[in-house]
Amino acid sequence: MSDARDLTAHLDAQRRAFNAAPYPSLATRRERLTRLATLTRRHRDEIAEAISMDFGQRAEMETRLAEVTTILQGAGYARRKLRRWMRPRRRPVGWRLLPARAKVHYQPLGVVGIISPSNYPWSLAWLPAIDALAAGNRVMIKPSEQAPATSALMARLAARYFAPEELCVMEGDAGVARAFSALPFDHLLFTGSATIGREVARAAAANLTPTTLELGGKTPVLVAGDADLEKAAERIAFGKWLNAGRTCIAPDHVLVEASRLEAFLKAMQRQVARFYPEGTASRDYSAVPGAEHRERLEAMLHEARDHGCRVIELGETLALAEGGVKLPPTLVVDPTEHLAIMREEIFGPWLPVIGVADMDAAIARVRRGSRPLALYAFTDDAELRRRLLEATHSGGVVFNDTLWHNAVPALPFGGVGESGSGAYHGEAGFARFSHARAVFIQSRRSPVGWLNPPYRRWLLRLLGL
């Protein structure tokens, strides 16, 4: 386990290496991305095994889809686009300064720190690392202590494929994470809860370290009157119960017109039965690791029951010999806003379904809440889509599906307000971990000397000054 001295020593070594080569070439950056992709591709079976060990049981296809494929896709996309991203961008100077020239030069920041969570312990560590390496930085990663097997594998493979002054993984407990967030990085990215995010932001502020915070929140789903209920239920079920609901952009609650509420509930039950015919015993349904997470989720559900909510459990709770527990997909009908299940991010397999009078009422409800990391709406109504885009705020928006915006490397991924600050992925990530340096190149034929004192009033009038 690392301590504060190890962290500082690694940071100092990376900073010295960066100062010795402050602008890595296109070839060097591409080669680093290739190594990262190779690391993931060659060891995908070990990755799946480690994550499943940490979870108690993790559906292997979910690991392949959400942990391995995303890294290979992200690294490949960055390699293909990197030449264009690195190219300086010309900017107009205005006629008064001609024939001078202006451009923006993208410069690596230096050393980037990444604090990753336990719900997607592989991809949420390496995806920001892809962007940081593409931008020419050195990288230090602090993986979650709640995924010890994955963290150990990550540290071992990082040491095999990268020199420590290029990229290193620092294992350790919550105390190490606190010390990590207090290091004077050139940029710090944190993915996790808003509570811990506030602590990370405070620690980084002491060093004026810029931060990117990916925090999640209560992602709403709107099912409009024109939506195909079966198709909506299918896509919501996929997005909700992938990883047993432990996804920062998972549907948190559904707002459906009250006249269609019962039909929607039946459609959801049919989709869950189709996805998981063996119930929670299905190998395609993942466990929730850790007693703390289970107790928090069960307390939410007990409170909802105690307040008279209809609770529809779509399976049985299943304790696993490997540790962890499988909690069943569960619908909670019409919970009131004061309940914990509606105040807090659920981050588990419970899905509140709330009947509303119409989409006006649904939009008003979304606007009353904090700004979420994502918003999903099932409708083909162009006017409703326009209103949602103009009247609400969220990190991202998906129409007629869930989650898949996160699989598009060309789209920025990030929150707004309480769901986070800053975005990465693809070109947005390259820009996030670069300094956009303004460059002005004066011409030898420049006439700006006419503006030297003593000032000529007639010239100022001519120039509109």
Descriptive account of the structure:
By secondary structure, this protein is α/β, with parallel strands linked by helices. It has two domains: about 5-215 and about 415-440, Aldehyde Dehydrogenase, Chain A, domain 1 (3-Layer(aba) Sandwich); about 220-415, 3-Layer(aba) Sandwich (Aldehyde Dehydrogenase, Chain A, domain 2), CATH 3.40.309. It contains 16 helices and 20 strands. It has helices spanning about 5-20, 25-40, 45-55, 60-85, 125-135, 150-160, 175-180, 195-205, 230-240, 260-275, 290-305, 340-345, 360-370, 380-390, 425-430, 455-460; strands spanning about 90, 100-110, 110-115, 140, 165-170, 185-190, 210-215, 220-225, 255, 310-315, 320, 325, 330-335, 350-355, 375-380, 395-400, 415, 420, 425, 435-440. A seven-stranded mixed β-sheet has the order 10-13-14-9-8-15-16, sandwiched between helices. Strand 3, helix 5 (about 125-135) and strand 4 (about 140) form a beta-alpha-beta unit. The longest helix is centred in the N-terminal third of the chain and has 27 residues, at about 60-85. The protein is globular and about 80 Å long.
N- to C-terminal distance: 63 Å
Whole-number count of domains: 2
Tally of helical runs: 16
Shape: globular
Question: Which descriptors would you attach to this protein?
Answer:
465 residues, alpha/beta, Aldehyde Dehydrogenase, Chain A, domain 1, Aldehyde Dehydrogenase, Chain A, domain 2, 2 domains, 7-stranded mixed beta sheet, 6-stranded mixed beta sheet, 16 helices, 20 strands, 43% helix
In terms of topology, how is this protein built?
Layout: H1 4-20, H2 26-42, H3 44-55, H4 60-86, E1 89-91, E2 101-108, E3 111-115, H5 123-134, E4 138-142, H6 148-161, E5 167-169, H7 174-181, E6 187-191, H8 194-205, E7 211-214, E8 220-223, H9 229-241, E9 253-257, H10 261-275, H11 291-306, E10 310-313, E11 318-319, E12 325-326, E13 330-333, H12 340-343, E14 350-356, H13 359-368, E15 374-378, H14 382-391, E16 396-399, E17 413-414, E18 420-421, E19 423-424, H15 426-432, E20 434-441, H16 457-462
Parallel strand pairs: 3-4, 3-6, 4-5, 6-7, 8-9, 8-15, 9-14, 13-14, 15-16
Antiparallel strand pairs: 1-2, 2-20, 7-18, 10-13, 11-12, 17-19
